[in-house]
Amino acid sequence: MLSQIVLASLAASAASAASIQGTKSSYLANEEDQSAIFPFLAGAAPYFPYPLGENYYKINTSIPETCTLKQVQVMARHGERYPGTSEGNKLIKLYNTKFANLSKTELADNPYFNFLVDPTYQFFLQNNASLELLTTTEDSLTGALNIHAGELTALNFGEAFTKKYKDLIGDTLPVFTSSNSRVYETAKYFSSIINKYLGTTINLQVLNELEKTGGNSLTPSETCDVWDFPVHQDIVDAMDTSYLDNLAFRLNNATEGLNLTSSDANMLFDWCAYEIDVSGYSPICNIFTQEELVLNAFSDDLSSFYSDGPGNPLVKSVGSVFFNSTVSLLKNPPKEYSAYIGFTHDVNIQHMMAAVGLFDTDELMDSKFDYRNTVYKKSWITPMGARVILENYDCGNSSYVRYVVNDAVVPIQDCNEGPGFSCELNDFYKYAEDRLSNITAFGSACNITNLPTYQSFYWDYQNVNYTAPIAVQSY
């Protein structure tokens, strides 16, 4: 029923897109599902569920029988977007200087770039007007045919959330979002489904991410002026990046007039990911070997581990703002609502997860590729549209919590013997206390003296009414 609401709202635009597109262009005629490569595209690719493979136990995400939901907490990333200003302008320059003027005759039989001679192919960034923005069915090159538009990801998440947690949603519900445009639009699309399906009045609260507001923020790292980004740069720099040299050589050797550097080759992964976000499909993705995709993912995991992940001690301090709120919401929940929903950026979710410790082995990552790296994979944690959900449910006389990360239950290490592999609530409090006791407090770590060091917006939004201006540029 609810799916019909989403689909019906897109039917008219889909028909319009079909009429505009006319006959499907040849480079799209044999379009294949590219979702298998999403985990290798450094979090820039469309949303995908946390990819538990055959070697993992897949846990049912349904609330265990005989248990009753008590509370849900959500921290979500915005949906699929256009590239940021810096990376987008670099991609436009790359295309215009290295690809736009290649010989069409030579490209006709090129094994990698023959799609460039298709008269219907359009590079997904014709200018920089849309950089930083959420992709929608209106501005996508393929219109409503783009199944990976950020708008649809938000609507689909709203649908799944409403179905599962409807009993926790009342007549009114505050939804919190940072003031960035793409984050705000994601929250708005998500909320529209709750309103349509349940008739709930949504109260969007916008927190300023461009001003220093201390810990009372969905982007607390903005206030941390002592940011060390990243630590262990020597380990990051020691990674063997010859795969980029080899990629550039292979493409140059097959394409007369092409003169890609290793830095250019590195940007092709962004071209691939963001073109899927914007158009729903990218022919450039077909140039990569499996080894190149794997090493691209590992390179991003390594740098992210030491910049925004558990390898950076300061990140855990920043993330403790979120983790402390998790505990406070469980111990002292606001009386008027039981679903606590925030929308922000990928790095903020990474900071939170570094504090929580779901993907932290207390060991440093090495610069040498290790195929057994099964714990910290940034793109698995924060793809476009990522969502980390903490469920709190009562079973009998006891209460339990568990994390659901991108539609997969991820149990807490050594605290998962409750129903649905959950953690008994008092044991979770002990886990959080032990974890946070080994993390320097946010205020101390970031030298904050005259600003709040904790999140109060979940409790005081009715009195404060957060109405920050919406901005395209992120912090």
UniProtKB/TrEMBL annotation:
<feature type="disulfide bond">
    <location>
        <begin position="415"/>
        <end position="423"/>
    </location>
</feature>
<feature type="disulfide bond">
    <location>
        <begin position="272"/>
        <end position="285"/>
    </location>
</feature>
<dbReference type="GO" id="GO:0003993">
    <property type="term" value="F:acid phosphatase activity"/>
</dbReference>
<feature type="active site" description="Proton donor">
    <location>
        <position position="346"/>
    </location>
</feature>
<comment type="similarity">
    <text>Belongs to the histidine acid phosphatase family.</text>
</comment>
<dbReference type="InterPro" id="IPR000560">
    <property type="entry name" value="His_Pase_clade-2"/>
</dbReference>
<dbReference type="InterPro" id="IPR029033">
    <property type="entry name" value="His_PPase_superfam"/>
</dbReference>
<dbReference type="Pfam" id="PF00328">
    <property type="entry name" value="His_Phos_2"/>
</dbReference>
<feature type="disulfide bond">
    <location>
        <begin position="67"/>
        <end position="395"/>
    </location>
</feature>
<protein>
    <recommendedName>
        <fullName>acid phosphatase</fullName>
        <ecNumber>3.1.3.2</ecNumber>
    </recommendedName>
</protein>
<keyword id="KW-0378">Hydrolase</keyword>
<keyword id="KW-0732">Signal</keyword>
<feature type="signal peptide">
    <location>
        <begin position="1"/>
        <end position="17"/>
    </location>
</feature>
<dbReference type="InterPro" id="IPR033379">
    <property type="entry name" value="Acid_Pase_AS"/>
</dbReference>
<keyword id="KW-0325">Glycoprotein</keyword>
<dbReference type="InterPro" id="IPR016274">
    <property type="entry name" value="Histidine_acid_Pase_euk"/>
</dbReference>
<dbReference type="GO" id="GO:0009277">
    <property type="term" value="C:fungal-type cell wall"/>
</dbReference>
<feature type="active site" description="Nucleophile">
    <location>
        <position position="78"/>
    </location>
</feature>
<keyword id="KW-1015">Disulfide bond</keyword>
